[in-house]
Amino acid sequence: MPLAVAIDSARLVPWIAKLLIARGDLDQAHRFLSAAPARWRVHAGMFLEGRMELVAAKHDWDATPPSIAEARAHATEAGLLALPMFADRLEGLAVMADGDADQAAELLGRSRDGLAGLDAVFDAALTELDLAIALAHSGKNAEARTTLEAAITTFERLGARALADRARAASSDLA
């Protein structure tokens, strides 16, 4: 169901956009992220994270370098810890799309480890799904299965059944 409400909350917009991305409503997510709400700079890290998630979901790899550069610059300026991990994730996905599964696995592993270190367990588990694909493309099926098992455990603990099922399906594809 599309959101027809105009929302002008610097804190809420990125979260709604990420929810829309997860639901596959990329056009609506783009509308939320294309025009920043008033006072958005106070939550710029979350806003930039949402934009990177949208770039990844759209497979808009041409938009990757400027998105990553903006996120890394803002993270440095604002002293943000998690935003560089999301930049690593996007970079890993772009590198994988370009065919370098080994480099993608390195970047995605760094992202996952950093997010897990910050107790961002949901985002770390999401990254594990992508990491497992990179590992499988690198011929590391056993490591990919172990990575997916960790994601499944997290998703089940958090009640994210659809994501747990998606990870299970990916794991059965490795068999």
Q: Return the average pLDDT rounded to an integer.
A: 90
Total strands: the figure is 0
The CATH architecture of the largest domain can be named as Alpha Horseshoe
**What is the name of the CATH superfamily of the largest domain?**
Tetratricopeptide repeat domain
Name of the CATH class of the largest domain: Mainly Alpha
Helix-strand topology string: HHHHHHHHH
**Describe the biggest sheet?**
none
List low-pLDDT spans: 1-5
Rg, rounded, reads 16 Å
The figure for the number of domains is 2
Given the C-alpha coordinates, what overall shape results? globular
What proportion of the residues is helical, as a percent range? over 70%
The CATH topology of the largest domain comes to: Serine Threonine Protein Phosphatase 5, Tetratricopeptide repeat
Give the CA-CA distance, first to last residue: 36 Å
**Helix count, DSSP H or I runs of 4 or more residues:** 9
Beta strand %: under 5%
Structural class: mainly alpha
Write a brief caption for the model.
The chain is mostly helical and 175 residues long.
